[in-house]
Predict the structure.
Amino acid sequence: MTALGIAGLVLPLPLSSAAASPPGPHRSPSFKSPSFKSPDLKSPDFKRGVVFTGDRAVLGRSFGKPRAAAGDHVIKLDLIDRSGRAPGTAEAPRVYIWPLDGGDPTGADIVGGHGEEKIPTGDYAMYGYVKTHETGGETSMTLVYLPKVHVDGTTSVVLDARAAKPIRASVDRAGARANNTAVLVSQKLGNAEQPTAMDLSGKNLYITPVPRGLGVTFHVQSVLTRGGAVTGSPYVFNLASSAEGIPSDPGVHARERDLAAVRTRHNSEGGPGCAAAHALVDFGIGVQVGLASSPGALPVTRSEYFSPGVAWGLREAVSTADCAFTDFDVSYRDERFPRAGSYSRQWNNAPFGPAGGVLDLSREGDVTFEAQMAAAVDVPVSWESLRGDSMLRDAEGTLVGVSAVPGEGTSWPSPAPGKHTLTVDAERAVPWSDLSTRQHVVWDLDIKGNEVIKLPAVRYRTSLDDANRARPGSRQEVSLVPEGLPAGTRPVFSVSYDDGTTWRRVPVSASGTASFTNPSSGHVSLRTQVPGVLDQTVIHAYGVR
């Protein structure tokens, strides 16, 4: 399961965006301590290598002991490891029991390879994870999966890891080795397919085959790098597949020519940094596993290969140069490469700024606000390092709702109909970046009632090098990409070379582009205004060198 923390500050700036005049200088922030947790974007641990995300009800499912009832039957459970011996309690502590009619799953404790439990008459899927200490000092993990066990009296069940087959992953490139593999098993229970076995990942994995026709599906994904390296490989293969039943040769195998070959540029953000990535697969069962492969020191360009036709959820974190990942920011994108062939992608490409959000007034007395405050033109970014606040005010300037989180507000009171301004101020200061150090966004709203208001934004696309820098004195063309703006509006666009102290307007063409000359050094800040609608400022949008 994943977790994201964001803390807040206050950055006071002008409240009204009605006028189109350039803004004055930004003032110093004052800090506050509250934090916000969002469970759906990233994991705080990019070194361990595996993350789970998806349906919270599934991820948090309890496998407690069944409640005994009259007429229940004893099941006697015996586990055997791959060497033919009963495993120790630590090597196989539990057997999981799923009613095939879709009822709640339960479990049985295993001690020294043996256990007993009482369950009602019925058909069940049962499985257990069994560790085996192999010759040579390695430890293997085996998933012993029984798709259908009928219980109508005292029943003995043997889960034998000796019947398991190795899970292998391979590509036809010399030197490519799996650094991690993960398996999910799902089964039709009642009227729905549900993920059952979810905790099988690593390198020395085995699984017992299951024939087709029993409602079981085998899902596997693997990350392969040069020599199996976790960090710094010049290429990475992200492979995934599903199969009906559990094959007698379980795993995933691919030829390079059958994959999507993605030339991927991982930019730095102006300071020394390190990147770590997760690739998650959506198999359509409500749960995804993320496997890690770190690009390492930034900037770097590498070849990344993906199984085509698969729904990939890609996440990349940027941290300090020592790759500690105690503090970091993360970007995320969903990709589905439709076919084999060549593609190109970028990560961490500036300018970073606001994206459209939502002010939800539909629940009386429980107004919520959410807006992305650190997006590239095509990649959402979640910055744990943002500090700031969000404020909703009426036409008289009276505060209606406030949050110590930039781009987030919950449980605000419902505003009266009329004119309002929604303001977000944010600041960040991290050693791996000198970009988007301050942001100020104001939306002008005409609130009518309990509606859901979609908030517009303007994103920016421009050409920069792999450190998000432009050449001194060069001509810079910036494309303004509107998001939810009223039809026919033409934004007022300004640039600053002194961190927002002074601004210079730049004409915007009918196609939405603006062109200007970069300074000899420093940073370029951007401001876009749509009078009566939107006013957004990004200080240090990109650097010049």
Remarks:
- The radius of gyration is 27 Å.
- DSSP finds one helix and 43 strands in the chain.
- The helical segments are 56-59.
- The first strand starts at residue 5 and ends at 10.
